[in-house]
Design a protein that fits this description.
Rossmann fold, alpha/beta
Length: about 280
């Protein structure tokens, strides 16, 4: 997915929000915003938004000296999600279609996104998404690929969201490799948060090596590229991963909520729609 004109104000908002969280030094925040403005004047419109995001968050780290501004927020969100975990497991297990219920929950968790300038109520979001119709629903294709898959690669997105991802991975009934970001970026999941959530106890956890708020293949390490090329089924969570991978030449299933108009328009759905969208299906 390329960068659209409407992405530019969002980049500025993200930089300002992260800068204010990273430091109280107003001079550094002014410097950050000035340098982001210069950076955005030079970017290629063919870049994916996560590629530009990687450059912006590198500036944030350099100027503020804070390598993980969202650390405390991530920890609080994870603690909140973990408290919900037992009830969510019961919800899935009592469903007529536990796999579909787990897919819905994974998408509900996608609302925990500090890269989008929107407030959220997690419990309300869960209740709504468990009933909401899908705008794109490639579930039969998904079940078919799952049934024959021996190796599943699951691409994580936001940290607390991975509590919901864990529930889906537990329902897949197959060995799973769970990929996390290479370094902290926004509130995306890293190895540290995956271990806190206990994903390392139910899946093999690897770092993609990506420094972007999304999976951008040329930022990824060779281990991840090997798994990406050889997985029988790839499940990709969230908008950042969709932005980075929507043009790849292999089958991928994207689970997300369209939280901004740019992505909704790009896909051809409405803002706030939910999707189980496969690409390159056969």
């Amino acid at each position: 997915m390329k960068t659209y004109q409407d992405c530019i104000p969002c980049f500025f908002k993200q930089a300002l929000r992260a800068g204010n969280i990273a430091t109280s030094n107003k001079a550094k925040i002014r410097q950050l915003m000035n340098e982001v403005e210069i950076l955005l004047e030079k970017i290629s419109w063919e870049n994916t938004p996560p590629e530009t995001g990687a450059l912006i968050y590198q500036k944030i780290r350099e100027i503020t000296g804070n390598p993980d501004p969202f650390q405390k927020i991530k920890a609080n969100n994870i603690a909140h999600a973990l408290k919900l975990y037992p009830a969510l497991k019961r919800l899935v297990q009592s469903s007529n279609d536990p796999l579909l219920a787990a897919v819905r929950l994974a998408i509900a968790g996608n609302v925990i996104d500090l890269g989008v300038d929107k407030k959220f109520d997690l419990e309300t979001e869960i209740e709504q998404i468990m009933q909401k119709q899908f705008a794109v629903f490639d579930y039969e294709f998904f079940k078919r690929e799952l049934s024959s898959a021996r190796k599943i690669l699951y691409l994580g997105d936001n940290a607390a969201e991975a509590v919901f991802d864990r529930i889906l991975m537990e329902e897949l009934g197959k060995p799973v490799i769970f990929a996390v970001r290479g370094i902290p970026v926004i509130n995306d999941i890293t190895l540290k948060e995956a271990e806190t959530i206990g994903i390392d106890r139910i899946a093999e956890v690897i770092s993609s090596g990506s420094i972007a708020p999304g999976t951008v293949l040329h930022y990824c390490n060779q281990k991840f590229i090997h798994e990406f090329n050889n997985a029988d089924l790839i499940i990709s969570k969230g908008q950042g991963n969709f932005e980075g991978l929507s043009s790849v030449d292999r089958s991928v299933f994207f689970l997300l909520k369209a939280k901004c108009k740019v992505i909704a328009d790009h896909i051809g759905v409405q803002e706030n729609d939910i999707l189980l969208k496969g690409i390159n299906l056969q």
